[in-house]
Amino acid sequence: MTTQDVIQLLVFFALLIGLTPVLGNYMFKVFTGKKHFMMPVLGWLERLTYKFIGVKPDEETNWKSYTFGLLMFNLIGFIFVFLLQMLQAYLPMNPAHLSNVSWHSAFNTASSFVTNTNWQGYAGETTLSYLVQMIGLAVQNFVSAATGVAVLIALVRGISRKTTDKIGNFWVDLTRSTLYVLLPLSILLAIALVGQGAIQNFKHFETVQTIQGAQQVIPMGPVASQEAIKQLGTNGGGFLNANDAHPFESPTPFSNLLVMFALLIIPAALTFTYGKMVGSTRQGWAIFSAMMILLLAGLSISLYAEYSSNPIFGHLHLMEGKETRFGITNSVLFSVITTDVSCGAVNCMHDSLTPLSGMVAMINMMLGEVIFGGVGAGLYGMVIFIILTVFIAGLMVGRTPEYLGKKINAFEVKMAIIAMLAPNLVILLFAAWASASTVGLSSLNNAGPHGLSEILYAFSSAAGNNGSAFAGLNANTVFYNLTLGFGMLVGRFGVIIPVLAIAGSMAEKKITPMSGGTFRTDNSLFIVLLIGVILIVGGLTHFPALSLGPIVEHYLMNMGITF
Amino acid sequence: MSTKIKTSLFNKKILLQATKDSITKLNPAIQIKNPVIFLVAIGSVLTTIIVITGIFQGNFSSFNLQICIWLWFTVLFANFAEAVAEGRGKAQADSLRKNRIETKARKLVGKQEVLTIATDLKKGDIVVCEAGDVIPSDGEVIEGIASVDESAITGESAPVIRESGGDRSAVTGGTKVISDRILIRITTEPGSTFMDRMIALVEGAKRQKTPNEIALTILLAGLSIIFLLAVVTLPAFFGYSLTASGLPQSHNLTIPVLIALLVCLIPTTIGGLLSAIGISGMDRLIQRNVIATSGRAIEAAGDVDVLLLDKTGTITLGNRMATDFIPAEGISVEELANAAQLSSLSDETPEGRSIVVLAKEKFNIRGREVQQLNATFIPFSAQTRISGVDIKTEDGILHHIRKGAADSILSFVNNNNGFYPQSIKNIVSDIARQGATPLVVAEDNRVLGVVHLKDIVKGGIKQRFAELRKMGIKTVMITGDNPLTAAAIAAEAGVDDFMAEATPEDKLRRIREEQANGHLVGMIGDGTNDAPALAQADVGLAMNTGTQAAREAGNMVDLDSNPTKLIEVVEVGKQLLITRGSLTTFSIANDVAKYFAIIPAIAVSLYAGTNPTGPLSALNIMRLGSPQSAILSAVIFNALVIIALIPLALRGVKYRPVSASKALFRNLMIYGVGGIIIPFIGIKLIDMLINL
């Protein structure tokens, strides 16, 4: 690593820490209905939206109605995206005359975009029309992210309110996060990206003659706008197959830095919003710190693995699969961040990372995408771990465990366990199925432990709603499209439903006032404890499988054996 | 029975019975109540089947047999832990039963006495008890007064007074009337008397899981499911790796090895000890002579963060004591002391006695016999509200010495055409402001001065309250005193808040208020008018000397009727929860080492190529002897740790009254960090033994 790399990392994280309270405070105002500067600009649109969908913004609902609204909204979104793909050949805005998508790929893609995963079993530019990309996928990029935020906000309300069954209005939360947070930020980012050279047009693909005299088709499209929301909404589904490694998506090192920042900023700022809403910013910072420590730990291991010499390349660093305009540090940073925040956009090929940094990426996803995590989703996933931590360790202070004054009883524990179980179920069962069946194994490009890593990575990515891939796996098959599609749905709604149930049950409880006997959840001891529980509970679940994948591959690589 | 049952942690009889019980508990219907251990039992059965079929097929594996044996031991050890805890309860119940004698009751039908068997008595029946009779069932005295020997339930041999009306009307079946005659209305149905309930409770027969225990069981079951998934899917990943290493599928993991891995990972330690911890929590309470009606109440005691404490008996010694003599103008302090002592010589009230003692200590005025002084004692009466002596001095004049409340002495002096000086009025109001009671002493028409009577705050109580504050518990003193006096005592005792001139209705209102603000409230009470507050409080500790209504309303009864007990109850509750949390943490932390033992062991041949061991042997950081001994050591450690922790589960982890953060840090270091390190050492040692 050069001094420049180090300085860049320091500036990057300093900016993140600095802007977290700014955006966090703004979102706090947005979600608590306080006055903020965007209200005069977009307030009319908010009111118009409510009128159009027939919602009274002041009417709050209990958790069951909230969940029902959310599920219906997502179901409709799912059906819409599914049908769009099945019928794209007959629909306008398809200048490349792409044919209809296969049913299983359509199912996979619909699941993928509704669940904020953006796993892409297809190559964007050669499969989907501009229409599907814009009114299907781009819309889901916004609303799936907004759905995640809505769930989080409902959960925070449940935690911070007392003796009520109302946890908010789903439609209001959805509208506000789309209108006041995602939309303005993505417009800003899109403009900045166009300024850096990202493309934004509706042109036909262009055919050019290369220097070698060959013909090359260069895809076009409204890339910059898609790029902006896919980063901000931690979606990750690139307009182009090469994703952020493609110069049309992220042309310069500066744009690379911008899109990495865009990835982290909303999940990071939400921790501050969380703290504000529960009435103690320290609580938010404690969660932020736990996330940041895990991020930095993963980053350090990855950087170490990529920069350390190995017997195969001698002292040359592994540049295969990485963009020369970004270099190693920025590729590794991107790979760690994108798997942390459940985005799944990539600027280098994760398949080509060293076994250890590949494992870091996998662990980031296997832990349940709680290291900042998807917009909203990361934080509510973290609250699940907090509940487990509080329950296990909270007893050690001699009281029934409580979090922010709310007693944690059987119901919360049950729901937290379900939420934790759901994604792990997908990863372990489907990955086991894939690695023991010919349908699963026939998609592998690599042998040995690396092949197993590819399978593990794919299902971890689906279950964690990440969407990135170890590119070596050909996932556009009936088997993978269905299992991964199903896995994404379970990984998403298998967590959302119990989280909202917890919100509902927490809202009905009283709040025990803080005292010397309270189990503190805002000090360094708790941060350490939380990290410990995440690593032990999350890590132990996957240690056997990981040891047969990336861990053994690491040792083999040091022995000079690759796959 | 003696209530201070200190059943030694293990005695031969209990251990023998527990050993038998741990086998009868293998009954699936009982075993399934503990999901974690049930899973181990299923694994044991499967392994046994595999071992037996192996014998018949001629490929007996001694490794499988050893795994099998240790799996069964794991189940038995867990059952044993529960059985020992239950056995201790049973031993106490038996000693209680011995005290239950088949009694005959003298039932009153109309005006006729009918002899019936005690167990036939119904609620509402009226019985007669005279000196020598054993009270047949729980009830309330409706007529008369008697002294009762309650040693059968309290262990206290000094008899207590039971009388109709008032706060001392409850009598307990099995206790004995020593003097007088009382009529008792029976208040409980047969089979549900205090004694019956006590026996059922200590036996754990009706033991139901407490809310926190249920939640913890769900967590443990959830963790078990996750690890079950990790183990069930492992052969698939392993099979893939075998193919990749060029090894045949027949090398895939065997079921005994998978079960061994599963049993090591699921939280068997806490799963096996959970019910023992709960039972022994109840047990520790009984050892402090407190009977809880449910385990839920003990848990609530740990959560209590507001304590309503009665001033008298809890915070102050029951009685006021004389601490100073303040003479009027022109009177020497010795003269005042002498007069005050004379007036108190026959005063048997604690206040009176304290005056005699103070005069002796301060001025060396020795107590004298009233008869020798030719004096007549005038006892305290509700009309005059003063007491004293009439004494003839050597000159033959009869002097009237009186002491009493300021206004009563004022009228006494006025009646004798005396003068009541303003300075005395000032002294009186000064003393009152300090939270003490002024007692004015007069002789005939002269006011001699004032005796300063003080409520004496119990030694060490301030320290106790400071500890409670550190633990995050707010103390509220309840007193009938006026606000001035109450404030002064509250300040001296260091309570956080006080309620002066408190009525039972005030108490109830206060409890509701605190609860509405999210607090959990503990209180002590004895009177019938305390019953609503006792029922409302999260922990209502009724005194055994109290009324039946109070005992029914509370969720705990203190047999010693010691108001300070509430604080101990809170500590028992906290200790119970801490023990549970610590052992859960320990159990989960143990898994790290077990992975490092088992994973390298099972993967030893993978990707080995031409080498003797594969690359994953690098994870064998404990350098365990062989793959088989590694797995076996982990399983043996896992089983033995249950046995090793039984004493801790029964005794509870050490409890210190410190703040939550300090308690957490301490326990986390011992059971969390220790839980990670200890198995590394333990497994290594067992492995060394196996490979000797």
Question: Mind explaining what this structure looks like?
Answer:
The complex is a heterodimer of chains A (563) and B (692). Chain A has 563 residues and is mainly α. Chain A has a domain at 23-209 and 217-267. Chain A is 64% helix and 2% strand. Chain A is built from 18 helices and 4 strands. The radius of gyration of chain A is 23 Å and the shape is globular. Chain B is of the alpha+beta class. In chain B, helix 23 (591-602) packs parallel to helix 25. The relative contact order of chain B is 0.11. The chains are: A mainly alpha (563), B alpha+beta (692). At the A-B interface, helix 13, helix 14, helix 16 and helix 18 of A face helix 7, helix 8, helix 11, helix 22 and helix 23 of B.
TL;DR of this structure?
The complex is a heterodimer of chains A (563) and B (692). By secondary structure, chain A is mainly α. Chain A is 64% helix and 2% strand.
Present the secondary structure layout.
The complex is a heterodimer of chains A (about 575) and B (about 700).
Chain A: H1 3-31, H2 39-53, H3 63-86, H4 103-114, H5 124-127, H6 130-160, H7 170-196, E1 206-209, E2 215-218, H8 223-232, H9 253-278, H10 281-307, H11 327-340, H12 355-366, H13 377-394, E3 402-403, E4 406-407, H14 410-436, H15 438-441, H16 448-463, H17 478-507, H18 524-558
Antiparallel strand pairs in A: 1-2, 3-4
Helix pairs in contact in A: 1-9, 2-7, 3-4, 3-6, 3-17, 4-17, 6-7, 6-17, 7-8, 7-9, 8-9, 9-10, 9-11, 10-11, 10-12, 10-18, 11-12, 12-16, 12-18, 13-14, 13-18, 14-16, 14-17, 16-17, 16-18
Chain B: H1 12-24, H2 28-31, H3 35-56, H4 62-98, E1 104-109, E2 112-117, E3 126-130, E4 139-143, E5 145-149, H5 151-154, E6 160-163, E7 170-171, E8 176-179, E9 181-186, H6 194-203, H7 211-232, H8 234-244, H9 255-265, H10 268-287, E10 290-292, H11 295-303, E11 306-310, H12 311-315, E12 316-327, H13 333-344, H14 350-363, E13 375-378, E14 386-392, E15 398-404, H15 406-415, H16 422-433, E16 437-443, E17 446-457, H17 461-470, E18 474-478, H18 483-493, E19 497-499, H19 504-516, E20 521-525, H20 531-536, E21 539-543, H21 548-553, E22 556-558, H22 565-589, H23 591-602, H24 627-651, H25 660-690
Parallel strand pairs in B: 11-18, 11-20, 18-19, 20-21, 21-22
Antiparallel strand pairs in B: 1-2, 1-3, 3-9, 4-7, 4-9, 5-6, 5-8, 10-22, 12-17, 13-14, 14-15, 15-16, 16-17
Helix pairs in contact in B: 1-4, 3-4, 3-9, 4-6, 4-9, 4-10, 4-24, 7-9, 9-23, 9-24, 10-22, 10-24, 11-22, 13-14, 22-25, 23-24, 23-25, 24-25
